[in-house]
Fold:
Amino acid sequence: MQWSLLRPVGLVPAVLVLTTIAAGAEGGKSAGPSEFLLVAQIVLLIAVGRGLGEIMQRIGQPSVIGELLAGIILGPSLFGWIWPEAQAAIFPKTPEQKAMIDGIAQFGILLLLLLTGMETDLKLVRKVGKAAIAISVAGILVPFACGFALGEFLPDALLPKPEQRLVASLFMGTALSISSVKIVAVVVREMNFMRRNVGQIIVATAVIDDTIGWIIIAVIFSLASQGALDVASVAQAVLGTLAFLVISFTIGRRLVFQLIRWANDNLVSTAAVITVILLLMGVMALITHAIGVHTVLGAFVAGILVGESPILTRQIDERLRGLISSFFMPVFFGLAGLSADLSVLRDPRLLMLTGLLVVIASAGKFGGAFVGGTVGGLSTRESLALASGMNARGSTEVIIATIGLSIGVLSQNLFTMIVTMAIVTTMAMPPMLRAALARLPMNKDEKERLDREEFEKRGFVANLERPLLAVDESVNATFAAHIAGLIAGMRGFPVTVLHIGNRAMEQEQSRDETESHEAVVKKAAETVSANGDGDAGSVDVVTRARRAELGETIIEEARKGFDLLVVGVDGVAATKDRFDRKIEDIAATFEGPLAIVAAKGKHLKQPMPEGLNILVPVSGSSVSKRGAEVAVALTQAGSGSLRVIYVATTRDKGAQRGASRGLSQEAGILKDASDLAARYDVDITTTLRVNRAPEAAILREIDTTDVDLVVLGVDRIQADHLSFGGVADAVLRQSKVSVLLVSSGEARQAPSEKG
Structure:
């Protein structure tokens, strides 16, 4: 396997020779910038960078190390030392040619910061905020002071502008103090420690580190552009940065969400949402530049706001990550490696200074983070793990050093020293963190939380992002809006209300504001939040009217990425074995999960009840579990009661030979339901009915208890009309209380009847 892995890298010399010959021929044609050379440079950086990145990941290192090493190999450190003419032919230092690939790399920086911001979990930061802030402050101050002091004592020969020593010292302090949230998050995630308590604190601290670091860089950039310590310009940069952050995380958060949803719902061009996000990133980068700070801060904040958007985050992340990881990352980090000439380290004095830089950076960060962890209330083992994790510099320091080099604050030698420090500390971090985390025991509370989160990753409700509510002007529509509001309030995701009745919009507009479907959804969501069960308080609700035939309208809405359609229309069941025509048309054109609401009993007079007493039948199947999950979520949100029934039927093969033989399986299914409810702190009552037809047992349970809603997880049955099977049909038509059918998105064949 090792030889097959190294084979692509072994082709690099042949590619270099061919590229050098072609580059020489191209260089003889014109003295101006060459598109051929640009493409050749990109091809080499991607091929070698991604190849070495693959090798690094195989041996437990971040892929960014391979991309940096690719630049070092292709640069003056190795290729230029072995064959300087060829290296100069492929990577000429003419300003015009260098500017072409530098432009791509600079845009790559913005995209990298956008992606880093999208990976920033603000909920995680808020959750462990106090401890993380204390750790971050201590972890920044100590290495920053060490780096600043080192900068003050550096020889003048290492500084491009000795008269600007203050700015250079500030850059050194910043480069030594900030951890790379990207590297930290990747390593912690690869080790499956992302959701551990200490893992959350490590990542949250790295996020705060990064945020503080970019603000510091913004101020230093302002200082460097002025050439001296101008109090007025620094004050303008600081106040401008604070104003930018405040506006971004208040008005901007809402604006970004609205723009993403508008682009997704109204634009028909390919990748419209990605286009809007890139425009947002560019505009925010320009704003930060206009207030006198670096564009990277704008891109980073834009990424945070995009990641906070409650819809489409997974799709956006997947589409952007592939392009950035495969193209912009190897180009940017490869160019950073090209700029680092490690051959200068043959000078014993520079080598000694670089070693000193690595020691000061590691000791300062490790010591500061350890002290911060101790002060923040962590144990010694947790503090050691934290200090080990925070010592990785990686991509962040390379970006900072590149900025310092580009604005003339750092010399070429200082840049090389910082890049070397970043590589050494990043490569040392994974084995140190693995060793520290391996010794950390897991307490009971942490284990219960992790088990719940692991379950939620596979769950249905926990992974919803965007429900669509289809309603007419009926009472059933109001009850359906209440159900949708309870579900949305649990996670804080937005709801779109689609009016499909002939006169629904006119009647909706004529209703009292407190009785509109939008108001019902919001009121239900606010109730969840008031009970302390909601995740994000009030939900965002928009209303749309049907503008075409019902089927065409549903198809048009479905393309916008809805992952659940809640249907509330009058007359759910039309005839003995058929649904209403509107529901048939909706189900035929929406391929995702459906939730069909049928209000009965007291909900016809009170469609917005204060609580729900729910009955949910379970069978152990996946659709049954989905129904149980929805029932548990509604019970928790509506502050009601939950009753679970399992029916061992005479239709089950072998049930006639005695109920006791199957009791262990039945008890296991009921226990699964109890465990599900316990994860959400919901009390349930379980009932086992033996040797009865399931629909009869369910209807009897309805008649003998105080339940007012039955939630059934059902499969679509392949037929010439909409069908969920005989049990669901009987319960829907004969139940005296409301029914909620929660279906999967795929139809299955009906079971064959055996005589």
Observations:
- Strands lie at 467-471, 495-499, 541-545, 564-568, 594-598, 613-618, 641-648, 684-690, 709-717, 738-748.
- The first helix runs from residue 2 to 10.
- Residues 651-662, 751-755 have pLDDT under 50 and may be disordered.
